[in-house]
Amino acid sequence: MSYLLIDQITKTYGETRALDEVCLEVARGEFVTLLGPSGCGKSTTLRAVAGLLDVDRGVIAIDGRDVTRVPINDRNIGMVFQNLALFPHMTVAENVAFGLRMRNVPRSERSRRVSEALAMVRLAGFDDRYPHQLSGGQQQRVAIARALVINPGVLLLDEPFSALDRKLREEMQIELRQITRRVGITSIFVTHDQEEALTLSDRVVVMNGGRVEQVGAPDAIYSRPETAFVADFMGARNILACRIVRATPEEVELDWNGVSLAALPPRNQWHAVDQRVLVALRPELVCIGSVEGTTRNRLAGQVAARIDQGGFISLIVSLVDDPERTLTVRQSKLDETRNGRAAVGDPVTVSWSAADLVILRDRPRDQDRVGSPAVN
Amino acid sequence: MKAVLVALVLMAYAFIFAPLLVVVVVSLNGGTVASFPIESWSFRWYGAAFANASFLNGLWTSTWLAVSCTIVAMPLALMAALALSKVEFAGKSAVEALLMAPLLVPGIVIGIALLLSASLIEVRNAPMRLLAAHVLIALPYCLRTITASLARMDGSLIDCAMSLGASRWRAFIHVTVPLLRPGIMAGMIFAFLQSFGDVPVSLFLTDARNNTLPLAIMAYLEYGVDPSVAAMSSIVTVSSLALAVGLERLVGLRRAVG
User: Fold this and answer.
1) Nearest CA distance, A142 vs chain B (angstrom)
2) Is B72 part of a structural domain of the chain?
3) Which residues of A touch B163 (CB under 8 A)?
4) Taking a C-beta distance cutoff of 8 angstroms, is the pair A107, A132 a contact?
C-alpha cells in the first residue's frame, strides 16, 4: 500500500486551475521529485501536502491517515522551504530544537536529539552560531536537520537548492540523498531543474498546467517520454508530426510529410494505420553519418547552424528535400573528432536507430495546449 | 569635498543640540535670572524646581500618563498592524488612513474635538480623558514602527514554525514577537515621548489636580522666567536621552528605526 496518497486533488484560484485532479502514490522511503516549469502546480501540490493550502476537492493521506483537513501543525511533516526560513533570532541549536520544543520533548532528550541531528548533517559544534554566520550550504544543512529531527512522516522540500551555485548544489544533492537514504524517510522534492530531478529521484513526476503529465523512473522520463510536453521539457528537441503507414508487432512505419521513418511499436499503446501521431527524437541520439546495421531513418541534409555549447555542439540540420524542415543534432566533442567537424553549409547524412524514435501519447491536434512545444 | 560634508554634519548636530546645551548651562546658573554667559555655578535651581508643587504634580501626572499611554497604545497598534498586514478586507486602506490621521490633524483640533466629545458623553474624569487622547496621538507612531518591522519579516517563517508543530499562538510568541521586538521597542519610546511632551491636545483636557509637566512649565512661564524652568527641562531632557540610550543598548533602537 502506498504510504503517501494524493487522490484527485483540485485547487482553483478564480478562473485558473492550479491543480487539476492530481493523483500520486508514494511508497514508504521513496524519493519522488515533482518537476515542471514555474506555474505547473508542483509547488502548489507540495503546499497542499504540507497543509499550507486547502484543496477544493480530493484526498491526501499519509500512512493511512486522511490529513486533507488536518492543519499543518498536526500533520507531522518536515518541510524545507525555498528560502530555508531559518529563524534569524535563534541559534543553530535553537532552530533545530524548535520542533521538539513545540512537541514538549523534555530538555535532556531535546539536546541529545539536536546533537544527533547536527552530527548527521556534519554541523556538530555549530550549535551556538546564528544562521547569518553560516555559509549557504551550512544553512541548507541546518534547515534539513531541523525538518528531520522531529521524525516527520514525510519530508517536503520546495526547491531548496535553487539559490546555490552549481558546484554547491551538486554537493548538496549528493548529501541530501545520502541523508534521506540513511534515515529512510519518504521525501517529496520540488524542482524545475531536470538534471536535479534525474540525479536525486527514485521516481519523477512531470507536471504541466496543474496536471500530472507523466510519472516514472528518471530513465523512463528521459528516454521514453509519453507526451510532447515531457519530451520537450526533458530536451528532446525534435518532435515530429507523423502519420502511421503500417503497424506490425515488430515495427511501425511512419510518414513524416513524405519522408518514411521507422520506429519500434510503443508499449501499452495501440496505433491504427493512418492515425496521426507525434514522435520525439533526442538530439544526442542522432548520428552524423550512418548508424551501423540499418538503412532506415537516414536523411540527407545540410548544416544550417552550428552552436558550440561547451561540452557538446548542437547542429541544426535542414533536410535536402525540404529545407524548411530541420532536425537538431547534438554531438559530443569526441563525436566531432571522430566524424570530422561539420561546418555551416556542409552536406551531411543524419540517421538514428528505430528504437530511439519515441511515439508519444498525444496527437498533433493537441498542439493548442498550454506550453506546447514547437513541432516540425 | 569631505571637509564640506563634515562641516555640514557638525552644523546639523549643533543646530539640534546647541539649544539643549544652553538650557542645561542656564539651569546651572547661580544667579537669579536666566542670563548668559554664566557668572556663578550652582544646583540651587534644581532644588527650587523640586520645591515647586506644580512641577512635581506635573512630573507625576506626565509620567503615569506616558507610561499608561504606552502600555495601552502598543498592544492596540500591534493588533492593528498584524491585521493590516495579514488580512485582506474591504476598506483596508481607509482604516489605515484613519489610524494615521492623528499625525495629520493639528493637535489643537484634536484637543478641542476630544473636549467636546468627552463632555457630550459625560466623561468628566480628567485622567481618563487624557489617557484616551494620548493613546490616540501615540497610536500612529507605534503602528508605523511595527509595520516597518513586519514588512521586513519573512512570512514563510510563520509557515515554517507551524510546519514544525507550533500552534498559531506559539508561532506568534516564539517567532513573530521576537522578530518585531525592535519595532515594538521603538514604538514604545515614541509613544512615551509623544505623550510626555504633548501640549496642544492636553491643554484642553487637564483639570486643576491633573496637570501635565509641559503645561505646568508653560503656566509657570506666564509669571516670569527663572532658571528653575531650565532645571526641570534639563532633568526631562537627560532622562529622555538616558531612556533612549538604555533601550538602544538593550535592543538596538537604530535597527528598529533605520
Assistant:
1) 13
2) yes
3) 50-52, 72-73, 77-79, 147
4) no
Q: How confident is the model at residue A374 (pLDDT cuts 50, 70, 90)?
A: low
**B216 and B109 together in one domain:** yes
Residue at A369 is within a domain: no
Q: What is the per-residue pLDDT across A117-150, written as a single tens digit (0 to 9) for each?
A: 999 999 999 999 999 999 999 999 999 999 999 9
Handedness of CA A229, A234, A235, A239 (dihedral sign): negative
Give the total number of structural domains in chain B. 2
Same domain, B71 and B191: yes
B170-188 mean pLDDT: 91
How far apart, in whole angstroms, are the C-alpha atoms of residue A341 and residue A225?
31
Q: Are B101 and B167 in contact (CB under 8 A)?
A: no
Residue A275 domain-assigned (yes or no): yes
Contacts with B167 from chain A: Cβ below 8 Å: 73, 102
Of A73, A78, A147, the CB nearest to B166: A73
A345 CB near a chain B CB, below 8 Å? no
Residue with cell 557638525: B10
- pLDDT tens profile A82-121: 999 999 999 999 999 999 999 999 999 999 999 999 999 9
Can you give the residue range of the structural domain that contains A45?
4-223
Q: Please report residues of A whose CB lies closer than 8 A to that of B156.
A: 81-83, 85
Instruction: Give A-chain residues touching B174 at CB under 8 angstroms.
Output: 98, 101
What pTM did the predictor assign?
0.82
Enumerate the β-bridge partners of residue A14.
none
Residue B187 falls inside a structural domain = yes
Which of A243-247, A270-274, A368-372 is predicted with the least confidence, judged by mean pLDDT? A368-372
Same domain, residue pair A154 and A186: yes
Within this chain, do residues B119 and B205 fall inside the same structural domain, yes or no?
yes
Distance from CA of B179 to the nearest CA of A (A): 7
CATH of the domain at A325: 2.40.50.100
Q: How many structural domains does chain A have?
A: 2
Contact B175, B157 (CB under 8 A): yes
> What is the strand order of the sheet A326-332 is part of?
A287-288, A347-351, A298-308, A312-319, A326-332
Residue type, A346: D
Instruction: Indicate the residue of B154, B165, B166 with minimum beta-carbon distance to A85.
Output: B154
Comparing alpha-carbon positions, the chain A residue that sits nearest to B174 is: A98
**What is the residue range of B28's domain?**
19-51+226-258
Amino acid B236 reads V
pLDDT digits (tens, 9 = 90+) for A308-362: 888 889 999 998 888 888 999 998 888 888 877 888 888 888 989 888 999 988 7
Q: Which of A72, A91, A142 to mutate to test the interface with B (most CBs of B within 10 A)?
A: A72
Residues of chain B positioned with their CB less than 8 A from the CB of A80: none
Residues whose CB falls within 8 Å of the CB of residue A122, separated by 6 or more in sequence, listed in order: A141
Residue in A with minimal Cα distance to B171 = A102
**Residues B164, A89: C-beta atoms closer than 8 Å:** no
Torsion of CA B164, A64, A29, A94, to 10 degrees: 10
Residue A370 inside a domain? The answer is: no
Same domain, B45 and B162: no
Quick one: pLDDT band at residue A292, thresholds 50, 70, 90? low
